[in-house]
C-alpha cells in the first residue's frame, strides 16, 4: 500500500509559516536541494492543497526552460511535469488539467482508494490546511520534516487540534551545514 508522507519545513517551535503565511525564514541551499531532489526523484505522485498547488502550477511547469534556470529548477521542473498531482480543493475544477486529480469531497474514501493503487509513496508538499485535514482523518503515514534553526513564537502550526496521540518511529536524520536538520518519521501504527 502506498503511503502519504508530509514534506514540510518547520520552525523549531513547530510552525510551518508565520502569522501571515510568511516563509522567508526557511533556509534552503544547493545541499538541501540535492538531498531533497534524490528522494523526490523516487516518487511519482505529489499531493497539494489548493493554495500550494496554484503556487506550484504558476512556477514549475516552465521553470526549467528559463535562461536563468538553476540545476535544481531544471530537475524539479522535469519531475513536476511528469508527476501525477492530487489536489485537495472544493473550488478548483479538474477540467483541462493534465495528469491532475482534484478531490473535493469524500476525502478519506478518495485518499484511501489512491493509496491502494500501484505507485510510489505520495509526497504531500507544504499545504498546511490540507495537512491538518489529513491528520484529522489519520491519513498521513509519515513526516519528512526540515527543522529550521529559528523560533517564530507564533504562526501556522504543523500540528493543531490533535485528538489522540500519534506514535512515530524515527527513520533517519540529516544535519545540513546551514543549520537545518532533517527528521524522517513513519507513523508507528
Structure description:
By secondary structure, the chain is of the alpha/beta class. It has a single domain, classed as Dihydrofolate Reductase, subunit A (3-Layer(aba) Sandwich). The protein is 30% helix and 28% strand. The chain is built from 5 helices and 10 strands. The chain has helices at residues 30-40, 50-63, 71-82, 107-116, 128-136, and strands spanning 4-11, 15-17, 45-49, 84-88, 100-103, 122-125, 142-148, 156-157, 168-175, 181-187. The protein has an 8-stranded mixed beta sheet, sandwiched between helices. It has a two-stranded antiparallel sheet with strand order 2-8. Helix 2 crosses helix 3. The two termini are 14 Å apart. The model has no long low-confidence stretch (mean pLDDT 93).
CATH class bucket: Alpha Beta
CATH evolutionary superfamily: Dihydrofolate Reductase, subunit A
Please identify the structural class as seen in this structure.
alpha/beta
Number of strands: 10
Key structural traits:
single chain; 189 residues; alpha/beta; Dihydrofolate Reductase, subunit A; eight-stranded mixed sheet; two-stranded antiparallel ribbon; 10 strands; 30% helix; 28% strand
Amino acid at each position: 500500500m502506498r503511503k502519504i508522507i508530509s514534506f514540510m519545513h518547520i520552525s523549531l517551535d513547530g510552525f510551518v509559516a508565520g502569522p501571515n503565511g510568511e516563509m522567508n525564514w526557511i533556509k534552503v541551499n544547493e545541499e538541501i536541494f540535492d538531498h531533497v531532489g534524490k528522494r523526490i526523484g523516487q516518487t511519482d505522485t505529489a499531493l497539494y492543497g489548493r493554495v500550494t498547488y496554484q503556487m506550484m502550477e504558476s512556477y514549475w511547469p516552465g521553470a526549467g526552460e528559463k535562461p536563468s534556470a538553476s540545476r535544481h529548477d531544471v530537475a524539479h521542473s522535469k519531475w513536476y511535469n511528469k508527476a501525477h498531482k492530487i489536489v485537495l480543493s472544493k473550488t478548483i475544477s479538474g477540467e483541462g488539467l493534465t495528469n491532475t486529480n482534484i478531490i473535493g469531497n469524500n476525502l478519506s474514501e478518495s485518499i484511501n482508494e489512491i493509496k491502494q493503487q500501484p505507485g510510489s509513496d505520495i509526497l504531500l508538499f507544504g499545504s498546511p490546511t490540507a495537512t491538518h485535514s489529513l491528520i484529522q482523518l489519520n491519513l498521513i503515514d509519515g513526516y519528512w520534516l526540515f527543522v529550521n534553526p529559528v523560533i517564530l513564537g507564533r504562526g501556522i502550526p504543523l500540528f493543531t487540534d490533535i485528538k489522540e496521540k500519534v506514535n512515530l518511529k524515527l527513520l533517519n536524520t540529516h544535519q545540513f551545514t546551514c543549520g537545518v536538520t532533517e527528521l524522517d518519521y513513519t507513523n508507528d501504527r
